[in-house]
Amino acid sequence: MAFQRFSDISVSERILNSFFLMSIAIGYFFSLGQIYFVHHGRDGEPGLSIDDIAIAYHGSPDQTRLAAAIKGPMAGNLKNPSDAEVILNWIDSGGKKAIYQKKVEPILQRDCIMCHSPDSGMNLPPLTNYENVVKLTTADHGPSVPSLVRVSHIHLFGISFILLFVGKIFLLCDIPIWLKRVTVGIPFLSMLLDIFAWYLTRQTPGFAYLLVISGAMMGLSLNYQICLSLIQMWMPPDDYKSLWRNMKVGSAKTGSTIYTFSKKYSPIVWQNSILMMKFLQTQAIKVMSGRTPRD
Asked: 105 is in which domain, residue-wise?
């Protein structure tokens, strides 16, 4: 029995697979944005750094959880930038209840309570009263083990399914078998390494480098699968093999190869787009006339 390739599947399957892969790719870049907005500024410096990642999982004994949030990801939620200084000064002064009720509580009620309350349904520390807020004015030791366990099982179940579906599509690619086996395995290994790095970083901040490297490995291998699958899915096999040979030869002549590729491949993309549109038009006519297509 011959192995199945992209040339063996219907246009409907190609459309379905393509939209799925593009959605995953777009979702991945949104996840990078999520990482930035959640962790940036934790070290008091603008932008995202390795220190921000270390603080997110190891904590920072030099500052409290509330101060780390005010200086970092939550700073943009305060309508008045000067309110951050009010809250930080209250923390430094010992977190007295009278000052909280007079200066801090109105700020939290106005800008924070919408998300930081049990009614919001979000997994965020409640800021509904003094007792809840003062708990966050102790030294920041990072997330607790139970909270990491909760997030770990969600990541393992959810991301594993994504990697499985992307990998099943990638298996239809026509590439050396050793490269295919390595490529489908790297994302899973990187995911496991990334999650274990959370717990290691919680104990030793230096493991934040391992966390970043493992995340980068998963992202690169995942997007390699997506890009190669989309190319081979719509490009004729002979043209893809020709492109592959040109890319090898072009390693010494990069500029010339890029020009040759774009000159040759642009008409192919256009032709395939026209063919796909004609196919969809034909299928729509058949459905309207009562003759349901097979796929």
From this structure: 60-140
**For residue 286, what are its two tokens?**
């058949």
Determine contact, residues 99/90, Cβ cutoff 8 Å: yes
What CA–CA distance (Å, rounded) separates 241 from 154? Answer: 40
Amino acid in position 125: P
Task: Answer whether 65's CB lies under 8 Å from 138's CB.
Answer: yes
pLDDT band at 212 (very low <50, low <70, confident <90, very high): very high
- Amino acid letter for position 170: F
Q: Is the dihedral of CA 232, 235, 240, 246 positive or negative?
A: negative
Query: What distance in Å separates the CA atoms of residue 152 and residue 83, rounded to the nearest whole number?
Result: 35
CB 176 within 8 A of CB 244: no
- Alpha-carbon dihedral 101, 124, 116, 46, rounded to 10 degrees: 80
> How confident is the model at residue 293, as a pLDDT?
42
**Could you say which DSSP state residue 101 is in?**
I
Residues 137/95, Cβ–Cβ less than 8 Å: yes
Same domain, 129 and 243: no
Per-residue tokens: 100: 């909280």
C-alpha 141 chain-centroid distance? 25
Predicted pLDDT at 268: 56
Listed residues 140, 155, 171: the one ending a domain? 140
Tokens for 151, please give them.
């997030």
* 211 Cβ contact list (under 8 Å, min separation 6): 53, 57, 194, 197, 198, 201
Residue 293 lies in a domain: no
Q: What is the pLDDT of residue 74?
A: 74
Amino acid at 249: V
